[in-house]
Amino acid sequence: MGKKLWAFCLLGLGLLLPMAAVGSPRVGVARVTADDAPQIKAVANNVEQLLFFSMQSLGGYEVSRVGQFDALAADPMASDEFKRLDFVMFGQVQRQPDDSILMRVGVFSRADQMVVEMSSQQIYSVFDLFDAAEASVIEVLEGFSGEVIRFATLRFRNNGADDGYTVLINGDVYGTDIREAQVLAGSGTVQIRQRGEIVHSQDYQLEDGQGLAVEFVLNEPPPGVEDEEPQEAEPDEEEAAEGQQGRGGLEIVLSSAANIYGDMWTIGTGLGARWVLDNGLALGVAPSYQTVLFNDNLKMHVIGLQASAGYLFYLGDRFRLGPQLSLGGMYRMLEYTDVLVYTENAFGAMGELDALAEFNLAGPVWLGLHGGAHLQWRGILILGAQGGLQLGWRL
Asked: Which top CATH class is 23-242?
């Protein structure tokens, strides 16, 4: 009886071991594809890191990193790299022709031979990219795992020597010289490695939305020894925003304007400045000077000051449309030579054609041609409206 019992136990163990071996789904986190723009690459890296480290922290999965994955291929999991996997998590972050950014995050199942989870978002502002990345990852992970997914933040501060360091989360490399990392809410271990040596290790227990300051001290590097960590740090959210083709920030505006006021022509110049927000809103102020042309009976010089508000519609990275409204005032200096042909108190409309050169201090130069009209009375610009097309490029 005893021998039969032992034989039965061994048989049961032999059956359970293979079941345990296949009990943990094998999940590969693929390289998230992205455009070359710094902010696009940064958010793609963020998506990839969130997927990988979240799956690790969930437990119950055999998680590994794999290369680029094409879910639309005839047999997406045909290569040796994917044959051993049960699921592949993949993503894509790409700028669209309308200048929006399309973000897709999904899960492909070998058993179903199809995408079983997918999140797709279209983002119109670079400042929304990282929030959108987090939302997409949460949607996909919750659908895949059935767990409630929430994130916390680790913030890193070096109180020691100026040297490179690598951040490890639960033993895996998260990034190099980074200032913060998003991790799955819960428990884990963060380590700081300097030149192959762990100089700081810290366990954490974090709730949804909670932040933790990880302070560490780097040692002085040996004289004449270069940084051991040569990888280029991924741009953070702030740096990514600054890299969007210089669309936000201060612009210096040089203009040459031709105006038609009744039968009178004027030509002038202006030098102004305006602040462009990332969403396209532009607020500016510009002093200007004009003088009358093609009129023998009147010499007039006009000094003006205008405030403007407009909106810039970007057409890719090279063109933009710029409608705007303006208000202001002007002072006229008149010299009469024969017959008065201009009435100071007149109310009237003035057509305008402007050639513009705008220098964005964050990057590109824009050249453009604008047309518009002004309504004036007693030297006051009641309302002006302009609009036109600009071509931009980086110096």
From this structure: alpha beta
